[in-house]
Amino acid sequence: MKTTYLNIIYVIALFVAGMLMTMQAYSVRCIRHDDGISYLAATGHQGLYATSRPGSRWVQASQWQAFWTPDEFWCFSRISRDLAAFDIHPPLYFWLLHIWTSIHGVTLAAGPLLNIPFHLISCIAITVSCRMLGCSQLVAGGAGLLWLFAGTNLAVASEARQYSLLGAISALFILFLLRLLRRPTLPSALCLCLTSAAGMLTHYHFILLLAACGTLAAPQALIVGQWRTFLLVGISIAVAALLFIALHPNFYLSFPQQALQAAPFTWTEIPHRLGRVFLALMEQFIPHRLVHPFINFLSYYRLPVLTVALACSAASIYLIRRLRRRLSLRQIARFDSVPFVGGTACFVIIALLYVSCRNPRHAMGSKYLMLVTPLFFTALGQVITWMSRSREKWSFVAIVALLVSQTTYGFL
Q1: Which of 20-24, 112-116, 172-176 is predicted least confidently?
Q2: pTM of the model
Q3: Domain residue ranges of the chain, discontinuous segments joined by +
Q4: Burial 122-161 (b: 16+ CB within 10 A, else e)
Q5: CA-to-CA distance for 382 and 337, rounded, in angstroms?
């Protein structure tokens, strides 16, 4: 298919996605609990609400409305302090929401409208990353669009929360990391540094992605003798950490709040939480009606499922050990493997934190995996490219079939 036609189709698909998310934003009719917290934080009133909200008496509606009415612009330090003292999230998204609501106003559509460019940026970044990894224009564009229309990703944009921004920063992070690994220049290092700092200021779990991808990329640079690349990656992440501390110095105050939200560990919770992890991963491609029966199965047959899970874990360890004997370190730790291996490692850590009850019971789903799904869909583009090397038409059929599947997802 000609490049011009592919570009036109790609732009049209982005426009359609933007229109769908815009319609979705203006169709919001009620404010959810977490969305309300976002608007409180963005208007700089989260601390005031926590300490001075009226209770046990009737008051005028204007007193409640004042909590999400902006009264001061550029109150970034107050937003940061309130989040550190009364919440468990870093402030970047709420800073951006503060600027946006000061322009647009605080409405039910404000947060969802802000998320639209984040989703489009994610799609474009995945496409560029795939092209950098040697995928054809069809496969690269298809991988980005598959992420955009995947499962409940579009639905995530309807929430006034930081997950859409997290997905965009994750996609940009892997793009700039791959760029730095191929061209170790100061501009590439600067882009990686700023993206890493933005990620840490968006969600604390971003540190897991930094650790997973950095641990994979830095040793590989040493193996092939690229000392400049090794130093630039390390310095970029170190400077990003310093930027994070400088912009959000009270971040450590959120950790006691996070510990209070963690549920006590119980063995009976493991089947349910394993099911939630499976559902969150599978709903990227499979409709809820097909995966929810699996969750009911897990809840009913707890002991057999736990036994099978342990057996699968033991088998996986055995296969990995066998694989290590056949592959050299150079083959495993290639730069091109960063999206899949780094994303998988980060996903496993997030899943372990959730299954071990370090995270609240509800904290697993598509939006909680926005940190790693851009990496998975970048890797999907690599897989399709690898499978279609002998037959070029196969990639076209695979992309079209997957896109049709994702498009019809919303009707099921």
Answers
A1: 20-24
A2: 0.84
A3: 3-26+109-409
A4: bbbbbbbbbbbbebbbbbbbbbbbbbbbbbbbbebbbbbb
A5: 9
